[in-house]
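Write out the 3D structure for:
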Amino acid sequence: MVMPPEPAPCADHSGSKKRDNTMDIDYGPSRSAKSRRIDCRCSPHLILPIMKLIVENDEQKGYVREIGFESFLSMGELEMNKALNLWLVDKFNCDSEALELEGGISIPIRPLVKSVLGIPSGPIQVVEGLDVDDALKDQYTVNTRAKYAKDVANEMSSITDKEPFCIAFMMAILGIYLAPNTSLTVNRAFLGAVKQVDKLKEMDWCNFVATYLFKGIKEFKESNTTCVTIKGCVHILSVIFIDFVKDAAFEVPVGFPRLGVVTKKHIKWVVSHPFTSLMVHRPEESVYAAVLDSIAKDNIVKDGKCVDSETNSLSDTPATTDTNQNNNKHRVSGELGTVMPVKPAPCERKKGHNVMDTGNRPIRSAKSRTAEIIIYKCSPQLLPPIMKLITENVEQKGYVGEIGFGSFLSMAEFKMNRALTLWLVDKFNCDTEALEFEGGISIPVRPLVKSVLGIPSGPIQVVEGLYIDNALMDEYTCNGKVKNAWEVANGMCSITDKEPFCIAFMMGILGIYLAPSTSVGVNRKLLGSVRQVDKLKEMDWCNFVATYLFKGIKKFKKSKATFVSIKGCVHILSVIFIDFVKHAAFEVPVGFPRLGVVTTKHIKWVLSHPFTSLMVRRPEESIYAAVLDNWPKDNIVEDGKCVTNTDTLSDTFGTTDSDQNKNRHPVSAELGTLPISAVLGPPVTSHNTTSWGIVEYVEVGTSPRSAAPGPFAEQIIFPTSGEQLQSSRPSSEPCSAQVC
């Protein structure tokens, strides 16, 4: 795509040579004294007609899937905009490899390439210039010059054999879209890599495409020539910027990879507004939140490579190419499979992190930190799109209902707020396990978890570290590391069998929401519990989630590190606080479980007021009154366990693979044989519903406590066939929520 004369964008902050350009207030750089012709070869609009032909050929379509580039088969209708491209190139910082926008928002590009393109990011580094024989090189040569990439794309539709087709496919999409050079031809330096068809899926194309683009932008910014071409897939910048646009009239589409859902319709909306007038989401609010959370914060960028700040070194192991000293036209000594991967990841600069609003920033008790970076991985906003897909699949929807997690199918949209979350964490007392506010109001959190989440609180304790076989462990491992929870959640939508689906479902929601750790990976220690699918509904997930959160908060409060992550489902605190807000202009929504009725609308109202100015209800006035009435008043909290005045609640764990018995044999006791620490009351049934009264915890072999329950025994009714969800709490208003 040839662009009319446009000035080069200003790049003062990137470390490149300075130009005298100034930014146009609407659409980017104004013309400099020197007229320049700027070309861009990245042509996503040319890919769609090629893919349509391939989709009609089952054999070729199969080849594309086998090499890991199936995302192109569902590519959306795309088009480029030169003004937007140049404005984004100007905003790109070559040192931090990030788009740097107003308000200190920094969006690292490299880690988002996988989510945008959906191409392989394997362990094998892509190397240019590997040796190829003359016959293969001649196939991509015309009159001693490289073939046009578009011609190669047209010719490949008639190729039937796998190897030549895959080579032609790769050369075409690299030349047209993924790594276009300064001409419209294929880059024959890629032939040595792409000819190894059986290894294409294992190669790190994501990092290759990112590096190629970043080098292209850097060369463009440093160039002083009149005619200059930007190399690389600049379309990536447009997609990412569109995904970060924050406007009430603009809806960011859902789905991955992004090149299949962000279309020319979205870019047309964006270019109809002055770019500088558009607000953008902060990274943790964006559709890429889970991916960006996984970036190592202690990494720095040096010469385009990520260097660990502790070791301050990064080893490079390049393969020998035909441009090295050994330029004798022989095959390189090592195939691509022997090349060590180099996966640089940009650092997030401190100014790119969300700085809490000073009016609502919590005052740290017991310690203060300077320039602290606090994050949390709990991401409720990521679940509704996934649940929507499950709801559309009758079989999967049934599985979720069978294991007792049907409440998630009607989960409302809820966007977390960092300032509110950290303020509530500060208000949380780890000794009493309660939110403590002015006026002596103390809100115990543990007994409310069931009402917030609607997940099982059965008699079987959830235990981490139970034995699992290597095969199951490998399913949740990728390149020696735990799988990303978001990828697991996306992948489960294609699983049809009950057991693997339920395991993937549990691992996904635990990693994203219920029990997120300090990374965005799944917690493989929970595999031993979640694999017992037939017992999931009988396990005490409520107490597990509560304990995991309370330990995470306690660890955070004790930490003196500059960078610290809060583990656990901090969303629970926000929901409970919103439910306790007491204000004439604010109506607490009705219905249980609360994650289905407390939405983004409610948190936005709360955020529009200084937190300390909001009055809170006393527990007996709240929507949780009946639940809290039944909570034993003579209980005290000790080390996260409930202890009565007379009896101690004993812990009995099953043998785990981290105990002394490390012989990889199954544990002697499955979860089903763990001692009962809670019992269910007699079922109460009505049309299409079954409910259980919440009764006090008792130990096997002991007598129930004599303390009588309150006058209004709580009945939280969970539908069996799924229409209405109700609570029999004393109230003049019905409490109901629709469950799909």
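The radius of gyration is 29 Å.
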